[in-house]
Amino acid sequence: MLPTFDSFQLQNARPYQEDYYFSESHKKYSLMGVFDGHMGGYTAQYLSEHFGKVYSCLSHEIRENTIYALFKTFEIMDRHTKNIPEGSTAAVVYIADKLATVAILGDSRVFIRDADGNIFRSEEHSVKTNSKERKDAERRGGMTGNGYLWASYQFQGLQIAMTRSLGDASLRKVLNQIPEIVQVSLGKDSWILACTDGLLNQESKLEEKVIRMANDGNSAQQIVEELSHDDNFDNSTAILVRFA
User: Which residues, listed in sequence order, are joined to residue 185 by a DSSP beta bridge?
Assistant: First the structure.
């Protein structure tokens, strides 16, 4: 099966762009990712420009184990970004041999129609929607309220909605920098959609609409434009993969 990549993004009402993404195909695998920045786009842009390069530079022995290789790549990217004030989510998908390996960090999402026609939905590392993630952040010393996380050692410091990210130097102690990784089997009718949270706004009804549109054969542009609205102050980005 050969993957074809289709991507689209909108800045919406936000006066600047903080979403970044990449996709690349190699002889034996394909790799893609979306990164949603906050407090600026520097970390997200850095990840989009370097994630694939870092992965490809890992030794052959490490890349023999895809899950370990992705953990290792995130570990390296964390070292590169740990002192940067701006933060970013990550939703990365490695595709090879009818298998998608999904690595999630933060509240960007991945949806997949699997080999059996079922829909896989990645976890959302969000204070508002994931009670386990919220409690884990609190155990690390984080304070939570009204859907946000902040550090008790900061006075009027940064507040963010996610519990895992890269960058975010001032919140590093209360955030988790380790991705959640799962594998999903693919078939000839499968598709993969990776998107930033600006597309969904944490609304289950929008999730269902995105899935329905992907099942109906719509493009990334059609999906993003259909879900955009005038009062959306967040950027919206989607990468859609289909197979031939």
Answer: 99
